[in-house]
Amino acid sequence: MEKRVKLLCPCLFGLESVLSFEVRKLGGENITVTDGRVTFEGDLSMVAKANIWLRTAERVGIVLGEFPAKSFPELFDQTAQLPWEEFIGVDDQFPVKGWSVNSQLHSVPDCQGIVKRAIVRRFEKVYHRQWFAETGPIHQVQFTIHRDQVTLLLDTSGPGLHKRGYRAHSNEAPIKETLAAGIVDLARVRGDSVVCDPMCGSGTLVIEAALKALNIAPGIRRRFAAQQWACFQDGTFERVRQEAVKQVRREAPFVAYASDLDEEAVKLTRENAAKAGVASRIRIKRGDVADFVPPESPCILLTNPPYGERLMDQAHAEELCRTLGRVLPQREGFGSYIISSQEGFEELFGRSAIRRRKLYNGMIRCTLYMYFSPKNHSRPDVES
Q1: Which of 59, 60, 304, 327 has its CA 20 to 30 A from that of 34?
Q2: Residue 55: C-alpha distances to residues 69, 80, 309, 339 (Å)
Q3: pTM over 0.70
């Protein structure tokens, strides 16, 4: 019988429903959604599928155990009872890191030490050894302790899943790839969509839109920590990757138009689009947002205007919002999805959004302002 695992994927706050929709589409079972995380079950191949396919997950962890603990002996004993040997070999590395919030076990360094010693105790009994060299592949152990509830995981991803591999360089205030992918999903970008961004920065929004439209798996070009583990030496990741290659929809007519006033941003977008394999679908040029004219055809605008916190002063940021309101048309078939932390954005923009969603761009609390024709935009996971 195929081994079953429970997986946990953290995500940016506000994207939980988007991620759960992705997981369901991927075949995840027994899905549970809580703030900033989605858990689900599947076989071992689901580890590879989740890493390669999920667009809004930050990483993929295998849940080894969940239990309450208010004392170090409780943490030690219950950690030592878990079947770590099912994934970690006798010579493998198993560093420990984690966090604790609103819990009696609040010292993270002490918890790290307890978890590490408990796993060693387990291995002493299982492997009949007193010393572990830890020279093999890394199996990153992670713990979270929230209100005295402990979750122990093995991180299968390695570097965060937002690191797709196409953005070696970015401008000063980039939007995270996973957040951009969530906005693309909320905007209902499809294979035949036309997308534009008149303040493209390093191109993340239009690139993520192209990846979604062409059904290119976001992790198709990168490697993951679990690929080195013994239990995945049967070619699971390679098979999932090959299947993903077959599912790319190169025949989709998608096209995007990207522009920015900064010549360096235009250059970055061009370079990043080429690395992502979607350069042929994105028309890139230098241009001022004040001169922006969208295509006459149905079009989706996705943009992340500067917030006045890093790139420019507040007055300039406010003027950009006013300019957007002036140049963006109000017509059937044109939708705008603008993420901003700007106080009073709608007043500056000159229109109230049809819907809003609270999101985080890094540590900056933002709102996604959505302007569209309601009859063309219905799915139950979109909230006001």
Answers
A1: 304
A2: 33, 34, 27, 18
A3: yes
